[in-house]
Amino acid sequence: MSTEIEFADDGQAFMQTQQFQDIKSWAHEHLLNRIEELGAEFGRWSRAAIRQFVDLELDSFVRLQRVPINDAETRLIAEALTKELSGFGPIEDLLQDPAVEDILINGHKHVYVSRHGILQRVSLRFTDDDHVLRIVRRILAPIGRRLDESNPMVDARLPDGGRINVIIEPLSIDGPAVSIRKFRKDPLSPADLVKLGTFDTAICQLLEMAVQGRCNIIVSGGTSSGKTSLLNALATFVPETERVVTIEDTAELSLNHPHVVRLESRPGGFDASGVVAIRDLLRNSLRMRPDRIIVGEVRGGEVLEMMQAMNTGHDGSMGTIHASSPRECIYRLEMLAGFAGYQGSEVSLRRQIANAVDFIIQIGRLSGGQRRILSVTEVTGLNDSVVAMQELYRYEPILNPDGTERDRWVTLGISPHSPKLARFRQALQKLNGDGRV
Question: Which family is it part of (predicted)?
Answer without folding.
Answer: Belongs to the GSP E family.
